[in-house]
Design goal:
The chain has 195 residues and is of the alpha/beta class. The protein has one domain: Amidase signature (AS) enzymes (Alpha-Beta Complex), CATH 3.90.1300. Helices cover 34% and strands 9% of the residues. The longest helix has 19 residues, at 20-38.
């Protein structure tokens, strides 16, 4: 399962070859094992993710039409609001902030039937380029813990590189997706504005 792409995983889930809930449970075992060292996540959403995955599995069994990311575990950078968990922007000031709404990009992931497994670490308020400046713990490069993963979306890139999710959202003004992707050896895409 680790070597599957997000789309290959989605096809296996929709084709009833593997259950999303099993994938999510296995992924959380990996997160529990690896993330204490890497620090890719500020928080995980295990109960929420298992509930969404179970719903995807139910819909697959019922033969319903599913979204483009059906059952695929993804991470969301912690500056993107979600009702399902705290949104801290990696700052102790916002450590207990609960958003009353989901960001549009989160709504789009949910509409595609993705399974959001956690909030990825970042430089505090996205002000940095190493993810050393998180108020809630540093992220290290999963390939070499003596190196940084880049930033400010370093948690997102590190989570993908460490196979702690099958894709992740970041935010990018001056390279904050692209630089961590380069540091961690994964693909990072800054889409055209308005797309």
């Amino acid at each position: 399962m680790e070597n599957l792409t997000a789309i290959q995983l989605r096809d296996k889930i929709v084709g009833s070859q593997i259950k999303s809930a099993d994938v999510v449970r296995s992924l959380f075992e990996r997160i529990d094992l690896i993330d204490p060292t890497v620090g890719a996540y500020i928080s995980t959403l295990k109960d929420y993710a298992l509930s969404v995955a179970a719903d995807v599995d139910r819909r697959v069994a019922a033969g319903e039409q599913l979204g483009a990311l059906a059952g695929v575990p993804v991470a969301v950078k912690d500056n993107m609001c979600m009702r399902a968990g705290a949104t801290t922007c990696a700052s102790k000031i916002l450590e207990h902030f609960r958003s009353p709404y989901d960001a549009h990009v989160v709504e789009r992931l949910e509409a595609a039937d993705a399974v959001i497994v956690g909030k990825a670490n970042m430089d505090e308020f996205a002000m940095g380029s190493s993810t050393e400046n998180s108020g809630l713990g540093q992220t290290v490069n999963p390939w070499d813990a003596t190196r940084v993963p880049g930033g400010s979306s370093g948690g997102s890139a590190a989570a993908v590189a460490a196979r702690l999710c099958f894709g992740a959202l970041g935010s990018d003004t001056g390279g904050a997706i692209r630089q961590p992707a380069g540091f961690c050896g994964v693909v990072g895409l800054k889409p055209t504005y308005g797309r």
